[in-house]
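Appendix B, example 12.
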Amino acid sequence: MKNRLETLESILERLRHSIRQNGLKNSKQREEIIAVLYKSGTHLSPEEITANLRTRDKSTSISSVYRILGFLEKEHFITALEPGKSGKRYEIAAKEHHDHIICLHCGDIQEFVDEEIESRQVQVASAYRARLVSHDMRLFVICAKCQQLAGE
């Protein structure tokens, strides 16, 4: 798990402020989704988030979770990855920069930081007389476990 740039409480404070700014009512479920993602330290699907929430509140609906995830993503509290056919997976946005390596077979997502890649990206942007503002690197692979299962 990458280092956190914020505590859960500071993220929740920002969320409450955003809710007030958007003229919305406070929602315990928004905070619970943030907490689930923060505490998991990994990339969860809407179904996994819903299952986690249902352990405490059986009435949690997947449609509410999808709606809230859309809001949280739009407001930059979470980020989404689409590792393939399996649909979006979400992670908390308040982490140090990292890239992702994603298995196309099992959907496993690993985070990594490679200083050489980071440096090279700045060099490439500079060669085009541009300033790198942001990037999103995702490496799509067949992981060792899936290769072994397939006999590769």
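DSSP finds six helices and five strands in the chain. The two ends are 29 Å apart (CA to CA).
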